[in-house]
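Figure 3 (text version): structure tokens given as input.
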């Protein structure tokens, strides 16, 4: 489905809603890697980062946020939802913007799954990773993700929920629910997830880019945080107390502080390497 009324960046025959933010104070010049934000799946879009972490990174970095295929104000085709399609879309958006240097990828939930896949399959485009409440695209991941989405959509059939949506729900919520139903029931997304190329633990062990892992201590996938920290060779693990999968809502100041400090540390390390 084509979106109308919103400026889009064309990548092939698909339009993507893209927002770029620039540094208000650019102390380090243009040598700092751009920072690209990748949001979560279906009931999520560019706003997850636009109103939270992106302005923080934009103080000293060039920032890119975009709605993924099928989400927000980007086009919603009926097909093309494999994990490798998401990585191709990421590279396509960057190419269309003229960004060819390696970037820091900041991914929340499914966005982090895409970021890890990009680091494995297109490592030349990745300078570093910030992975927030996310897990790699293994075979088990795809089945669990689709099962959860199908359960959510099945819940939409509850009569009381339908009444609430028709009579009381705000417009934004109605749109998100409609988007979820359309993607799960009227696109190839479920089948595409199941047939996506797997991101293996052995492949992640070869990812040498610096990586910040951010998880809540009440997260349902906290075991993944320890797995990634043990597997990937250049990680920093941040577990935030009294937080769940919604860590960016529950502890926004802490997440913002850790991101900003991590980005500054990477910039200093890059500068020191350049001076050596």
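Below: residues designed for each position.
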């Amino acid at each position: 489905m084509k979106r109308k009324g919103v400026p889009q960046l064309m990548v092939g025959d698909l339009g993507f809603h893209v927002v770029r933010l620039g540094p208000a104070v650019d102390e380090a010049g243009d040598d700092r890697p751009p920072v690209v934000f990748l949001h979560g799946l279906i009931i999520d879009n560019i706003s997850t980062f636009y109103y939270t972490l992106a302005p923080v990174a934009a103080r000293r970095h060039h920032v890119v946020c975009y709605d993924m295929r099928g989400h927000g104000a980007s086009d919603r085709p009926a097909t093309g939802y494999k994990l490798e399609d998401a990585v191709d879309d990421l590279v396509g958006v960057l190419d269309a913007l003229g960004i060819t240097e390696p970037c820091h990828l900041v991914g929340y939930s499914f966005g982090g799954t895409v970021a890890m896949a990009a680091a494995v399959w297109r490592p030349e485009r990745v300078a570093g990773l910030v992975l927030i409440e996310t897990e790699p695209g293994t075979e088990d991941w795809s089945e669990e993700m689709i099962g959860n989405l199908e359960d959510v959509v099945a819940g939409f059939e509850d009569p009381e929920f339908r009444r609430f949506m028709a009579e009381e729900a705000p417009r934004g919520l109605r749109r998100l629910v409609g988007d979820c139903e359309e993607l799960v029931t009227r696109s190839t997304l479920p089948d595409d997830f199941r047939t996506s190329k797997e991101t293996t633990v052995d492949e992640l062990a070869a990812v040498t880019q610096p990586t910040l892992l951010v998880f809540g201590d009440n997260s349902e996938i906290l075991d993944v945080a320890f797995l990634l920290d043990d597997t990937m060779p250049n990680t920093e693990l941040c577990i935030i107390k009294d937080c769940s999968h919604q860590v960016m809502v529950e502890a926004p100041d802490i997440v913002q502080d850790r991101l900003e400090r991590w980005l500054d540390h990477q910039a200093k390390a890059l500068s020191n390497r350049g001076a050596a």
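The CA atoms of residues 145 and 151 lie 10 Å apart.
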